[in-house]
Amino acid sequence: MKKIKTTPLAPQEFEVEQISDNEANIMAYPFEVGYAISLAHPLRRFLLSSSVGYAPIAIKIEGAKHEFDSVRGMLEDISDFILNLKEIRFKLNNEATEAEFNYSFAGPCTIKGADLGNDEVEVVTPDAPLATLNEDSTLNFSIKVAQGIGYVASEDTAIEVDDDDYIALDAYFTPVRSATYKIDNVLVEDNPNFERVIMNIRTDGQISPIDAFRNSLEVMYAQLAVFNSEISIKAPTTIERVEESPDLKKLTTNIDSLGLSARSFNCLDRSSIKLIGEIVLMSTNDLKNVKNLGKKSYDEIVEKVQEFGFEVGADVADDVVTALKKKIEAVQA
Fold first, then answer.
1. Mean pLDDT, the chain, whole residue set
2. By the number of CB atoms within 10 A of the CB, which of 16, 279, 303, 322 ranks highest?
3. Alpha-carbon distance 10 to 31, whole Å?
4. Burial class (CB in 10 A: 0-12, 13-18, 19+), 93
């Protein structure tokens, strides 16, 4: 049965599943039907278009005048060299936003991303191949690396470079390699018609998935802030979360988990007691006074709560109590 509401349920749970250094799943729930995709889709757009990263914007190669040229003794022609360079991901140190680097190599050798790192720049794709030099060949080149967002065509980076000796490059700054989401259903008070969004974020190593997600939220808030300049928007009540608290997780568990008899469960349910934490916060007299709760049912509930690791009327840490009460209010709303 659908309840009449005056405000939609606000999501209260946030989880992060770290798959690797460069990949993570970020989950939030429960959302009202249709709300999850309303949030997930724009966040995905911001992740892909507004994440700040680094990319080479121009290159100068000794002996080469344009991208269709070639260098004696190098296996790759300049166009292949440039394609390989675009696959190498840089990260400038000391909060620099632009830098120029000079390199010189002598063959025979295979040049990889790791060979381009120094005190000023970190290469987060060290195994990416760049070029192969034959014996008695040399390769001297310079790279300009800049910070930016999204994709910038070579016609536009050429304006930034303003040097005829350099070949302007298409710059793909975005450090987010993929951002996808899926939405599934979650149960809230026996109602399965609520949603959970799971966002999978994979980066190239310039930035962590969590930082990329945080940045996309900041961009979204900044875009929406324009409305608050003319329309006073009441800030929503935030739910303080007690991070990594095993007690809070147990206390916010549904009373179904206690394994009570039907009579004991029904007495609590009819009194709108849904969470184990509600029982723990009650005094023994309050529990005894639950309507239609007899001594046998009372003893059973006390025993089951003890098996769960708590006592009725027990002292609970203040921060846990605060978070628990807000969770109870949300469930009863």
1. 87
2. 279
3. 7
4. exposed
Number of domains composing the chain: 3
Indicate whether 134 belongs to any domain. yes
Query: Across the strands, what pairs with 144?
Result: 58, 100
Specify whether the CB–CB gap between 33 and 191 falls below 8 A. Answer: no
Q: How far apart are CA 58 and CA 166, in angstroms?
A: 6
Nearest to 81 by CA among 66, 93, 101: 66
Task: State pTM to two decimals.
Answer: 0.68
Query: Are 142 and 215 found together in one domain?
Result: no
Contacts of range 34-37, beta carbons closer than 8 Å, 24 or more positions apart: 34/195, 35/8, 35/195, 36/183, 36/195, 36/196, 36/197, 37/183, 37/197
Domain membership of residue 117 (yes or no) is yes
- Domain span at residue 65 reads 52-172
Please name the amino acid found at residue 151: Y
20: its two tokens: 């690797």
Strands, sheet with 52-61, edge to edge from the N-terminal-most edge strand: 98-106, 138-149, 52-61, 167-168
| Contacts with 150 (C-beta within 8 Å, 6 or more apart), sequence order | 49, 50, 173, 174
Do 152 and 82 reside in the same domain of the chain? yes
91 with 165, same domain?
yes
What's the 3-state SS for 35-70? HHHHHHHHHHHHHHHHCEEEEEEEEEECCCCCCCCC
- Laid out side by side, the sheet with 176-188 consists of 13-20, 23-31, 191-203, 176-188
* 3 belongs to a structural domain: no
Segment 155-201, tens digit of pLDDT: 998 888 877 889 999 999 999 999 999 999 988 877 788 899 999 99
**Residue 20: what pLDDT?**
92
